[in-house]
Design a protein that fits this description.
The protein has 263 residues and is of the alpha/beta class. It has helices at residues 39-54, 73-90, 99-108, 157-167, 179-183, 185-190, 207-216, 235-245, 259-262, and strands at 3-7, 13-18, 24-29, 63-67, 93-97, 117-125, 128-137, 140-146, 174-177, 194-195. The protein has a five-stranded mixed beta sheet with strand order 3-2-1-4-5, with helices on both faces. Helix 1 crosses helix 2 (73-90) and helix 3 (99-108) crosses helix 7 (207-216). The longest helix has 18 residues, at 73-90. The model is unreliable at 251-263 (pLDDT under 50).
Amino acid sequence: MIVLGFDTATLSTTVGLRLADGGSLQARDDPSPGEHPGHATRLLAMTGGLLADAGIAWNAVDRIAVGLGPGRFTGLRVGIATARGLAQSLSLELVGISTLRALAEAAATDRTEEPDGVLAVIDARRGEAFAAAYSPSDRKATGELACSRALRPEDLHSVVEQAEHRGGGGGKRWLAVGDGAVRFRGALEAAGVAVAPDSSPLHLVSAAAICDIGSRAEPVARYEQIVPDYRRRPDAEIARDVALARRDPAAPDGVVAVRDAEQ
C-alpha cells in the first residue's frame, strides 16, 4: 500500500510518503522564528515534489493520511481541506491521525531514548498546551490518555499522574516531546518529566509516523467525517462573544463595542 501523509497542526508543514515496500520519504518546511507558516502556499507543491522524487504518479497512491491536530486552527483547516479534496478527486481512501499520537510514535521508535512513557505536548498558545500520554509497546505509541482540553503548564503533570494510575503504578521514566514540551520545559522538568533537547527532531511532527499509523488505521466511510480536532473554540469566536457581551448601550443598534475584546 502506498500512503501519502501530511500534517499542518503546528508551525511546520510536513509531508510523507510510505512506499509499497514499507520504506518512506519525507519533506518538511520549518519556518524561521517570526516567519509565518507556509501551509497554504507550500503543502501541495511539497506533495507533488515528493511524489516526483519517488517516481510515483498521483493515481498510484492508495490512501491519504492527515494529521487532525490538536493544533493551530488555520493550519488544521488547510491540511484537512487539502486531504479531503485530494481524496475525493482521486477516489482514495482517507484516514485521520492524531498529531499527538504521531509525535509520541516517533519518540517510541527512537532507540536513543527508550522511555517508559511518552508525553506528547503541542503549544496551544494563550499560555496553554494540548497533551496526551502514551505507553510505548512494540515500538508503537499505545494506551493513549489524551486531555480533552488545553492545559496550563502547571497542570501538565496531571496527565502523567492519570496515565500512571491507570497503568497500575508510578516510577516510570517519562519523556516529553513536541513544541509545547520545549516551551514549557521548566514546568515539565519540575514535575519529574524529562524533555528531549530543544534541537531534537523528536519535537517535530513526523509525516513518516503519520503515514505508518495511517497504513494501519481504518479509512472513513465518508470524507466529511475527517474534521479538525480543535479541543477549544477559535479565538475569533471567543472575541466575538466577548464583544457581544460588552455591547455598548450608548451605541446605535447593531453596533458593538469591541475595544475590550481586542486587547
